[in-house]
Amino acid sequence: MLEPLWQGVLAPEELAESNGATCELPAALESVRQARHFTRATLQRWDLGILRDSIELVASELVTNALRYAVPVGTPGTPVRLSLVRWTSRVVCAVRDPSVTAPIAKDPDYVAETGRGLHLVDSFSENWGWHPLSGAGKVVWALFLAPGPH
Questions:
Q1: Do 128 and 115 meet the contact criterion of CB atoms below 8 Å apart?
Q2: Which fold, 3-11+18-145?
Q3: Distances from the Cα of 80 to the Cα of 44, 99, 112, angstroms
Q4: Is the pLDDT of residue 19 over 90?
Q5: Distance between CA atoms of 69 and 101, rounded to whole angstroms?
């Protein structure tokens, strides 16, 4: 049932603009801000502003994780790709990076300033996970229910 959605996550460049959007991000700290802006603009264009806060937070966390654990700051090019894909009543926020290492949710430390990102992803999305990519890298995704018919 969700096969078209997953195909869009793995190859978002093949989707129409009304169903998918992709942003290539450099290995730089300002990429997190760029990811939030891209997410906000895409959801507004799709008239899905009601999901903005949740998806913007999740996009920020997934991009932060990719930059922190998968790509050293200063890596040349645009090694991280943020994609938003919608299909019927669902939206997927996906971040692709060159690492094959699985994301791991740490035990929460409520006084630490870091380490809660995947717990936030889990709390704000309907579901999340990751898939290794053939060749190299992985995609980490989070699924959201969109309100009303699309």
A1: no
A2: Heat Shock Protein 90 (3.30.565)
A3: 23, 10, 26
A4: no
A5: 9
